[in-house]
Design brief:
Blueprint lengths: L2 E7 L2 E10 L5 E9 L2 H16 L11 H16 L2 H19 L9 H13 L4 H20 L26 H11 L5 H10 L3 H5 L6 E2 L4 E4 L1 E6 L3 E6 L7 E4 L2 H20 L21 H15 L8 H12 L4 H8 L4 H7 L4 H20 L8
Antiparallel strand pairs: 1-2, 2-3, 4-5, 5-8, 6-7
Helix pairs in contact: 2-3, 2-5, 3-4, 3-5, 6-7, 6-10, 7-9, 7-11, 12-13
Length: 383
Amino acid sequence: MNGSVRRRSKNSWELTIDLGRDSDGTRNRKYVSVKGTKSQAQQKLRELVSAWDKGVPLDPSNVTVGEFLGNWLSDYADINTGPRTAEGYRQKIELHITPNIGTIRLKKLAPQHVQNLYSQLTNKGLSARSVTHCHRVLKEALKYAVKWGLLAWNVCDAVSPPRAVRKEMKAMTFEEAQLFLTTAAKSPYGVFFFVSTYTGMRRSELLGLRWSSIDLDRGTISIHETLQRVTGQGLKTLPTKTASARRMIPVPKDVVTLLTGFRIKQQQDCEAIGVPWEQSDLVFRHPDLRPFHPDTLTHAFADVVKKAGISGVRLHDLRHTHASLMLREHVDPKTISARLGHSSVVITLDTYSHLLPGMQEEAIERFSQGMDEARGEDPATIF
């Protein structure tokens, strides 16, 4: 498909898009007026041509919200996002958004339609957090409707989703963590739980960890892959979602010693059943080389904490425990952020901000003690 840009007046341009010929030979053209610089007009033309190539109609008068979202999922989300992200988008759209506002003409979509959607979802029992996720997905999709020239503006900018109350994470104390690991030692997945506690790695990162990514001599683990369940595709090895999640972290001698023995035992187990150990590089897997299913670890964790008499914690809370205990030992947040693979130290501080007040009290006490020692006299004698 071809297109051209023609100047109409100062900062005003007419875009002509050639849509080809009908069966009777009639040439079809689409004309769009835009304001701005010539380069902005040319960029708009490229976006419209790209949208047409993806099957998005240039005349949006009859396009419904449901039709647009379906196109956006297949033409953008499935191609430009990871499988798990695309799956999450599809779930929110097909379960919650399209059934409620899918029949509305895209051009007629108004803020009150979206606000009413959030009210309906809330009244049906959907949590504020889930409704907020729907808001983010719809807003992201409509951003492309604006970019492709189907909408003049993003109506989600004028709508506020319900405020989600952050659920405070649960972290174990040093004593609870040690009790947990002592109990976990009797579990077939004890090594997994030990490494999780000592590294703060995500479940998917541990399941995707390979021996080739571990340097036992240097005591480091390189994290660049995950193992995740993708609907319709089973377990898949995927790259980490962000650049910050790709990282190398040092591990203590206890982890090195445990992994060294674990690798030897793993080799022996493979030999005992006649399976070449080298065929699978995964650290955490069954003896027959099948990878662990994520749900298996979640259920095993629940069994261990129940036996240990610890309540209110999830498998993901081992990650929180690692970070919280490091904070309590006065490790700086930037180091913890890099270790956890957060994209910004702001995320780390926001997640664990509830720990900071007590830490500040300890810090000012240590500051005061240091000043007293340096002064060597009662402050009352100075003033």
